[in-house]
Design brief:
With about 120 residues, the chain is mostly helical. It folds into 2 domains: about 1-35; about 35-120, Cytochrome c-like domain (Cytochrome Bc1 Complex, Chain D, domain 2, Orthogonal Bundle). Helices cover about 65% and strands about 0% of the residues. It contains 5 helices and no strands. Helix 2 crosses helix 5. It is elongated and about 80 Å long. The structure holds heme C. Heme C binds next to helix 2 and helix 4.
Length: about 120
């Protein structure tokens, strides 16, 4: 009887350990992109998806709305920074609408726009 109980509890412990490993494993996987540094390449992809309706986001784009500042011009503004760019996306001035993107997409886009400043 005692021996049976021992094996039984061992089985449960093993099951717990297994579940814990699974939980930790998936937590580690979902953490990756969230904690990673802003990625300008990904920012360009996001911008090409949601900003090109109005802004000229890169050289490979041929059409944009007149009077909307291009990303290169935004990047070149004196005292421009990632923070200022993110603020203008979170709280846009009319007629720019609020664009539904995630926080990490926002950081990536700001990093992409600032990358245009250094290459000019
Ligand atoms: C529906 C058109 C539209 C879309 C889509 C749009 N914008 Fe804009 N955006 C504008 C207009 C118009 C302005 C100029 C508003 C102003 O400051 O007078 C502007 C201004 C800005 C500014 C501030 C520029 C400055 O001079 O300081 C930033 C930064 C910006 N947009 C980033 C973005 C990003 C990044 C996206 C995509 C995630 C985006 N916009 C999508 C229309 C748009």
């Amino acid at each position: 009887m005692r021996l049976l109980n021992f094996w039984n509890s061992l089985g449960i412990t093993a099951l717990f350990a297994f579940v814990l490993i699974l939980a930790l494993g998936s937590a580690a996987r979902t953490e990756g992109p969230v904690t990673s540094k802003p990625d300008p390449e990904r920012g360009l992809e996001v911008a090409e998806r949601v900003c090109t309706n109005c802004h000229l986001v890169s050289d490979r784009q041929t059409n944009a709305v007149a009077d909307v500042p291009g990303f290169a011009a935004i990047a070149r503004q004196p005292d421009q920074s990632e923070g200022a760019i993110m603020a203008r996306i979170i709280l846009p001035k009319h007629p720019m609408p609020v664009i539904p993107i995630t926080k990490s997409e926002l950081e990536d886009v700001a990093a992409y726009i600032m990358s245009l400043r250094s290459t000019e």
